[in-house]
Amino acid sequence: MGKADFNLQSTGELRIELSGSWLLADEIPDLARMQKELTQSACQKVVLTEKELGEWSSPLISFLLRCHEICDSADAILDTSALPTGIQELLRLSVAVPEKKDARRKQKGKSTLYVIGEETIKFVRGTFQLLAFIGESTIAVLKLLNGQTRMRWRDAVKTMQECGPEALPIVFLINLLTGMIIGFVGSISLIDFGAAIYVADGVAIAMVREMGCLMTAIIVSGRTGAAFAAELGTMKVNEEIDAFTTFGFSATEYLVLPRMVALALMMPVLCVFADVAGILGGMLVGVPILDLSTMEYINQTINSFDGVDFAIGIIKGAVFGILIALTGCLNGINCGNNAAAVGVATTSAVVAGITSIIIADAVFAVVFHMLEV
Amino acid sequence: MSDTPHIEIRNLTMAYESFVVMREINAQVKRGEVFVIMGGSGCGKSTLLRHLIGLKDPTEGEIFYNGGCFTSCDEDEREKMMQRFGVLFQSGALWSSMTLFENVALPLEEYTSLSKREISDVVSLKLALVGLKGFDEYYPSEISGGMRKRAGLARAMALDPEILFFDEPSAGLDPVSARRLDDLILQLRDNLGTTIVVVTHELDSIFAIADNSVFLDAQSRTMRAQGNPREMLEKGDDPVLLEFLTRGEGRKPLSTTPSA
User: Fold this and answer.
1) pLDDT per position as a tens digit, B29-39
2) What is the CATH number of domain A3-96?
3) What pTM does this model have?
4) Nearest to A305 by CA among A203, A216, A183
């Protein structure tokens, strides 16, 4: 245990005698006495001595540093010359560079107005970033259509491989289950009306028009959208995106466009598989529960939807693909420059991706309703 | 034409939002000079470099290349100026999805009309210059940090730039490699007439390569000196600068100062 004996001399000196062991596990004496003497009495000098001082480490130095600070604020002299040189050296080092006054974080007591202003500026800045990004992406797409793009098709093909075939098992599984759920819910409600056969219609239309592309988009957003954000975010941290900029290469054309193209092409393909999986799922549930033959179910399914329904699902899939690529890349490119920021970028990419998919789906529903298709 | 400075910084103020990093920086760099931006850690050296290569816009002041304003011209002109830069980032910043060959070849494919074979020859040459012959097909993640840095240099040199920028070139290199890099910098200056801007605080490097320099001081948030660091060491009387140039040991007799 560390011990400090305070002793006020008749000369006005405060003597502090240190003894015992001053290790991290030890109890460290308190400095209230010293503070009191310095503020209340006429004490102008503090002399530190030691007697049978045992092992010591950082606690002793931080104790001395506190002494130093107290003496400083009371304009008293601190005399450590009687202590071992090792201790004196460490104390000297820790006070050698004065505290940088403006380096300490300001207290968080911001007024409401300040916070509102700050958030508004952030929001406006974010909106401008988004608009600029959409503008740049549009230009990149126009260049692609004009055949002037510098995009490397190699990158697009590689991304297609990653977000298409490799996502197939999970897309198939999730849509199979979705089809089963719709089939099950449909069976329970329609069997009461003696309209069991229409379960096939319900599953087919729901999957082809709505659920197939929606479920696929959500999976791809969590899988590929997040991957885009993490990849571009890490590139940002590694200054790779800066390297593109300094070469005068457009990051949009090199990084965003191939990903957008890949997803816009692969999402429709995934949607076709999703439709098939969903209908299969509905059949797996519907046929045994409703006592239908497989052929009956398949015929009913084929007659239930037409090319327009199918096309709607596919078009939506492509649009969702573009939205996922855009939100993923936007968050990646605007990522801050540390590891935590990459995590934040990935999270916001998935959140923004799924939100924009659902909003787009709602818009589609309204538009298709107005077009009566 | 010959007496217009290659790079001119006029009254530059750099800030992150409302936090001013440095103010009133003025400097001129002649063609074919090695210009060192030096100063203590965290004083804004790299920030100044980011302004010079167009990754950040100044809060105030201007930067000129060959007498043409870089900071207020339009996008196309700026891009044209940037094509004459080569930048070596602190950790190399190689594009991780491409092999070393593709990294060096990409600028050539984009900005020259060389044939595939010619490009391949140039890439081999550049990789050989930095001692990475035979590593064409490696990805950046498969080589060491020092090698990545050298590959980054090969990429920066791909288009034979007029100005090469180095961000802490010797950080993370062993002493021998660091020395070789210094020699390479001098050779580029002497043989190709490249103007070279280096951000560093390595004293050995500074004395070995610098023709000209600015010293940035974090305390006063501005530049404290411009000139040849060897001359500054001999004649300078600014205590902060001398402390920096002598590792805080004070000026020694001239015979023991490091020599080029």
Assistant:
1) 999 999 999 98
2) 3.30.750.24
3) 0.79
4) A203
